[in-house]
Structure formats: C-alpha cells, structure tokens
Amino acid sequence: METIWDSHLNEKLRILADAAKYDAACTSSGVDRKNGSMGTGNAVACGICHSFSADGRCISLLKILLTNDCCYDCVYCVNRVGNDTERATFSPDEVCTLTMGFYRRNYIEGLFLSSAVYRNPSYTMELIYETVLRLRTVYHFHGYIHVKAIPGADPQLIQQTGFLVDRMSCNLELPTAEGLRSLAPNKPRRQLLKPMRQIQQQITVSKHEVALYRHAQPFVPAGQSTQMIIGATGESDYQIMSVSEALYGRFKMKRVFYSAYVGVNEDSRLPAVGTLPPLLREHRLYQADWLIRFYGFKAAELLSKRQPNFNLLLDPKCDWAVRHLEAFPVEVMTADYYQLLRVPGLGVNSARRICRARRYGGLRFEDLKKMGVVLKRAMYFITCQGRVYMPFRMDERFITTNLLGLKERLPENVVRSGDTFRQLNLFDDYHLQMPVEQEDKRQVLTGQL
Description:
With 449 residues, this protein is of the alpha/beta class. It is 39% helix and 8% strand. The model is unreliable at 44-59, 416-434 and 444-449 (pLDDT under 50). This is DNA modification/repair radical SAM protein.
C-alpha cells in the first residue's frame, strides 16, 4: 500500500494493527444510522463486510489497538508487561487521522478500537473516550465504531463512551474464574463482569427512552459482545458452552466469540509455543453457539459431564441427532418449527419455508431439496407424507458411518492449516462408542473386521 502518512505514524500503524489481530470480535454493524448532510460515513445494518485477511484481521474495519503498552502481566498475552516487544501508543488525533484517511480512500467502513491497559484502566478508557468524541464531534464521522470497555475503569467513562459508539465489548478472556486466577491475576472475574452488567442495564434503559422520546440518544445500539480464549486452559467444551449460555441469558450478549489460543509465550502453564491452535475445536464451539442462539438447544442437551467435549468428526447437531434417535424420524408435514430445526440438514430458512409451503399442499422430497434442505443429512431423520427417502437401517452405528462419509465443509483456515489433526490410533475415542455385540466379538476373532 502507498505511504499515506509520515514514517513515524506508519510505523505505529504497523505495530498496533498487528497487535490487534488476536482480537476476534469483528462483526456486522447491526445498526442503521444515516448522517444527514454534514458528516462523513454511514452505519448500515447489513454494513460491515465479513472479509478477513490471512492472519485473521477484518480488512473492512480499521482494526487497531490504541496502545500495546500494557501494565498487566497476563501469561497468555503477547503484550504482557514482561515481554520484550515493540511498544507504541496512538494519540486520539492520530487515530482520527488514520480513520478518516482510510475511509476516504474506501479502504474501510468503520473503526474497531481496542487497547492494552496503559497506566491504569481509567486512564486508558479516557483516551478511548476522547478519541471517539473527537471522531464524532470534530471530524463528524458517522460510520460504524466498535470499542472495548476497559474493566476496572470509571463507570462514568464507560457510559459516556457508550452513547458515542455502535457496539462495545468487554472480553471475558478465559472461561472460568480459576483460569483467570492462574493466568490473569490482574483481572478478577468480578471486575470483568461489572462493566458487562452496566452496559446491559444501560442498553435496556436506552431502548425505553428511545421508544418514548424521539430525540433520545441511543446507547450501544448494536449491542455488546465478548470473547473467550480457547485452549490456553483446561476447561471442557461443556464448561465453555455453559458459560456462553449464561452470558446470553443474563447479559443479553449479541455475540460470544471463541478465539483459539495461539502460543506466543513460553510458560509451563500454557501449551508449548509452536503447538497448532485448536481451530477445529473453535469451529465446533461456533456451531454449538449457533444452535443455542437460533435453534433452541441448551448446553446441557449438547454435552454433559459424561461427555464434556464435542465430537471432532461430526458437527454438534448431527452428533446430537444420532445420540437421540428416539426423537426421529420427524414428519415434515406435521412437525412444529422447533422440531424441524433439530433435524440435521435443515436450517432456519428451510424450516420456515416448509412451515409456509405445507399450508398449501403436500410436500415431496424433491420440494424439500428446492427449499434448501440437505437431504444427504436429513434423509435419516425425516419422513415426507409417511415415506422415507430411501430404505435404511435406523441404527446409530449405520447412520453415524454414513454421516462420517459425507465431506463436511470446514472453514478455509481449518482446512489449510490442518488444525490439530493427527494420526488416529486404536485407542482414540470420539464419543462414537457402541455396545459391543456378540457378532463384533466373533468378527474380531475371525479377522472379519
């Protein structure tokens, strides 16, 4: 890219844009706000594009840290105070200059501003507030802005900032209080939850005010989000999803993000540097998160203390279905919407189309395919006017084997990196255990596997 600013500012940009790549919380704006005739930029509901560079940065946002000069010593963080790394700090005007310059060149659609804790939480939050205030009032920027709330900062600063931005997030960092005590002693869980509760309560108040008063100023109209690091500590998937479910219920989170831990620091409490990040596990957590948010599942349905981790070979919905064959087959002409959602191969859109279409007549499997139903998955779990798609044995082992034969579309980074796949051995257990039958014992003895 051409050099737009002086070398000093470009060097800061290089350091602080690279430092921001570990923050995964870039999403669409979720708001629809126009600027009138005097400002620059809009925030459109379908707005921020889901476009990511090779190292995970969302290239449609100017995604930077205000500073990577941190006073905390979190074991897992590349910016911890004990690390010998390049440090840089933007001034509020420098962030404004960069944002406006990139926006006018059509490189970005908004700003994602995070920060390490510089000096103390309140000082850092004040810098973030001053930056956003200048963007809105001096530079008249009306585009999408997402900032991080700094735990431990003065609540008044968080509230003032919330009236200027579209989304705020406060990272939970690690799923459990035990993990935080071990790896981030400066961040007690109570301190992290306090700004989440403040933001949630103020959003609720603001919605009532906006409904009553035409000119009321909205507070964080795109909602709040959070992020958890996965794989740095030993929590099970069941613990992680239980925490996420609680966050959605108690704090009305818009999104919970899961960030596969990238080994950047040598420490006996962490996975060794060079260990591949658990990208496939991260992918399964996002799939389960989607099931909880939109498909009516509970964490306790997907996992349990007896089965605390997701099956890496099957997506969570298929894995649940083959373990609950007593709930199937589902008749598409009579099943309610939420029953249809539990069928592998049916999504929100296809379930809605089925519910609409069946009012006007009978449905055939050919019709389901046109509606977007993935029959190669759904065929084992549905009937259509009392008929099955093709004869098969309603058996957990048979269905599991056939589902494993289907090539699942995994995210590009999982496929490219190979994630943490390894050579299988005879002692691997991916939660596909079946009761050993007499026929199995006979075949083992005779070699007819």
